[in-house]
Amino acid sequence: MKLRDLATVIRSKNASPFITTLDLFFANLENYNRVKASGILTTELIAKLYKLPLDSVLGVWFVDDCQGIKISILKHVPSDHPLATDLYGAQQNVPLLDIDIPA
Asked: Hey, where are the domains in the chain?
């Protein structure tokens, strides 16, 4: 099953001019625990999906209290850079959508 089928919200946003945060929220504990237990969401996978060096993935955090996952990555270029393609960081969630989550 794809991550997009399990998560209710998959979004991205600026955490600063240099950092993008990816948020995932789940409507039920079963889906959240399935993704968490899968071990799929790692810093290595995020680095590969976003074509970043491993040290540019600041972390993948599982927040049990809100059935959410937060991922923070360094941007390729700051938000105000002439080569920045997403000023608000709002279009960076797409690589997460097709992640396969095993049963």
From this structure: 3-97
Task: Please report the pLDDT score of residue 67 as a whole number.
Answer: 98
Q: Cβ(6)–Cβ(26) under 8 Å?
A: yes
pLDDT digits (tens, 9 = 90+) for 40-64: 999 999 999 999 999 999 999 999 9
pTM of the model: 0.92
- 100 dihedral zone (left: phi>0; alpha: psi -120 to 50; beta): beta
Burial class of residue 99, CB neighbours in 10 A (0-12, 13-18, 19+): buried
Give CA angle at 20 (58, 8), nearest 5°.
100
**What are residue 23's phi and psi, to 5 degrees?**
-115, 135
Identify whether the C-beta of residue 24 lies closer than 8 Å to the C-beta of residue 3: yes
Distance CA(39)–CA(60), nearest Å, equals 11
